[in-house]
Design brief:
The chain is α/β, with parallel strands linked by helices. 51% of the residues lie in helices and 15% in strands.
Length: 258
């Protein structure tokens, strides 16, 4: 199995890298498994105090890859549900990491890739980056990532951006709370990411873990129950006639007949 997600540790900071630039750092079943395995290891490590998430190439992440989507288009309802639950587990393990998670966003972000940012604690983006929730164009919805995005932005902005699927820029992402900070150059991005990681590293790991957990309790968020709901909703739409038509239209490079 190709190793597309891996991490290294230096000075108590783990750097997790998505390395699939040829397919815009998109997900498939193996990538999801690797994400989960890496976060399980990093979360359990006593050496690691901060997790930095980044990717290789011009795109941060384009969400699901085309070959993966081809397979999804043939899944039964039960297979869709099982797949959606695994995807939900990937975002949950990022959000529930006892370590602070920083996302370094150097390029465009689509669909499920936005979930990686929303599940992180701090995200720093280049000003040139664009974001978009493209799912409704395919007859599905950003179900799995929605609770993580709502935690950052509130529901208001999603009524626009998840329903229109229009792209928006980094400054708008910052304005609505999806992104923590926007910088104007790659040099500034690297500087700010490093500064943020070391600031987090200097704080109490126990206090950080406890506060992250408290935020979920204060918000009344049970991630396990939430993920069960969102997984089923996504599976149902994927398996629906419009979901099937949307996926097939995308794969056949034509307009869907909704």
């Amino acid at each position: 199995m190709e190793k597309s997600v891996d991490f290294s540790v230096m000075d108590q900071i783990a750097t997790l890298v998505i390395n699939r630039p040829a397919v815009h750092n998109s997900f498939n079943e193996d990538v999801i498994d690797q994400f989960i395995a890496c976060f399980e290891e990093m979360n359990a490590s006593k050496e690691i105090r901060v997790i930095l998430m980044t990717s290789v190439g011009k795109t941060f992440s384009a969400g699901a890859d085309i070959e993966y989507m081809k397979r999804i288009a043939t899944y039964s309802m039960e297979e869709n549900l099982k797949d959606a639950q695994k995807l939900a587990r990937m975002f949950k393990i990022i959000r529930e990491s006892p370590k602070p998670v920083v996302a370094r966003v150097q390029g465009p972000v689509f669909g499920g890739g936005v979930g990686l940012i929303a599940a992180s604690d701090v995200s720093i983006a280049l000003s040139s980056v664009t974001f978009s929730f493209t799912e409704v164009k395919l007859g599905i919805m950003p179900a799995i990532i929605s609770p993580y995005v709502v935690e950052k932005t509130g529901p208001g902005p999603l009524h626009r951006y998840c329903l229109t699927a229009e792209p928006f820029h980094a400054e708008e992402a910052k304005r609505i709370g999806l992104v923590s900070e926007v910088v104007g150059s790659m040099e500034k991005l690297n500087e700010k990411v490093t500064e943020t990681c070391y600031a987090l590293k200097s704080n109490s790991g126990q206090a950080i873990a406890a506060f992250k957990n408290l935020l979920s309790e204060v918000a009344g968020r049970n991630w396990e129950a939430t993920n069960q709901i969102t997984s089923r909703r996504l599976a149902e739409l994927r398996h629906s006639p419009e979901g099937q038509e949307g996926l097939q239209a995308f794969l056949e490079k034509r307009k869907p007949r909704f």
